Each structure stands twice: as C-alpha cells, then as structure tokens.
C-alpha cells in the first residue's frame, strides 16, 4: 500500500538519491553533494510517497515565480509500472495552485515517447518550445529538452519567462539582458 505524498524527511535523502542515481544518467543529475546542497534552497522541495515504510517514489521541484518546475521525478525501479508514478503526480498536481512545468527528451526514442505519453495521460501538454539544459556536472554535455506544462500549452512569452527563471534560479546561468520577465 502507498501513502499520500508528503515532504521528505532529512534522513530519507540517501534513499531518494539512490532512486535518482538508478533513474537518471549522470548528465541529468548533480553529484550527491551538489544535489544535497539544494536542500538548503528555500525554493527547492522534495516530496515522497512511501511504500512499506520506505521511499517508493519522489518528486523534486522548484517553486518559481509563476510556475512549479519538476526537476526530477522517479519511482524505485522495483515499483515501476504499478501506478505509483501516476498517483504521486496526480496528488502533486491536485495540491498545487500553480501551473507545473517539466522537461523531457525529444520523442526520438521509444522510452522518450513513452515518457511523453505518460505525462500527456496525466494532464500535461507537450510544448513546441525547448532548450539545451545547461551542464549539471562538470565535464558533461548540454542536453536538448522540450518543455511540458499542466493547464495547456505555454504561450511564447510564458515559455520565455519560465526559461529565463529556470536558467537563473535552477541552473545558475545568466539571463540575457532585456528579459521582460525578471
């Protein structure tokens, strides 16, 4: 049985990071220490869903000005394909007051297509806008990504405001002068 999502307890961080390592390639995650340092950021939160007294899944997000940005979302590999991901995502969306945005790889592989389909089934729209995710760990490459959003597609201006804020606050990359959003 799964519990309702709740804020992660500090002593659960190791379980969360293990799921993160099992679920994301090195290019899509920070080092353990860099990821853990985010816990001191007021805008960064991790919620978990328990399964049999352990972390079954987690969702790490940023509270931005106009959006919630899901940076990482994953279930324990042993618990996948049992509805846990949909449950935690739906609970999260029902409890949020803002539009939610996340990144996905372009639909060039079967896995990317399945992931996009999962998010569409859970109320997200695939936007035609994207960008290259800045490097999270030194020595890695940028990653081309598309943006998905709850509540319908983003307008170009909404996308630009989201991109500028996520690049500045999450990726710590400078924003072009003249941004109308910050």
From TrEMBL:
Pfam family, one: Acetyltransf_1
PROSITE patterns in the record: GNAT
Domain of life: Bacteria
Domain N-acetyltransferase: 3-144
Endpoints of the signal sequence: none
UniProt-listed Gene3D superfamilies: 3.40.630.30
GO molecular function, a single term: acyltransferase activity, transferring groups other than amino-acyl groups
Protein name per its UniProtKB record: GNAT family N-acetyltransferase
Organism: Caproicibacterium argilliputei
């Amino acid at each position: 049985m799964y519990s309702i999502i709740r804020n992660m307890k500090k002593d659960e961080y190791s379980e969360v990071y293990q799921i993160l390592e099992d679920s994301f390639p090195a290019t899509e995650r920070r080092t353990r220490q860099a990821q853990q340092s985010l816990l001191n950021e007021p805008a960064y939160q991790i919620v978990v869903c328990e399964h049999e007294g352990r972390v079954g899944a987690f969702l790490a997000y940023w509270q931005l000005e106009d959006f919630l940005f899901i940076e990482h979302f994953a279930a324990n590999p042993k618990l996948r394909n049992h509805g846990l991901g949909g449950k935690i995502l739906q609970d999260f969306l029902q409890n949020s007051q803002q539009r939610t945005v996340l990144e996905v790889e372009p639909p060039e592989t079967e896995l990317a297509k399945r992931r996009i389909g999962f998010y569409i089934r859970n109320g997200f729209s695939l936007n035609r806008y994207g960008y290259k995710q800045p490097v999270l760990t030194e020595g890695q490459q940028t990653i081309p990504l598309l943006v998905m959003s709850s509540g319908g597609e983003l307008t170009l201006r909404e996308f630009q405001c989201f991109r500028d804020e996520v690049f500045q606050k999450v990726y710590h990359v400078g924003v072009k002068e003249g941004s109308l959003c910050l």
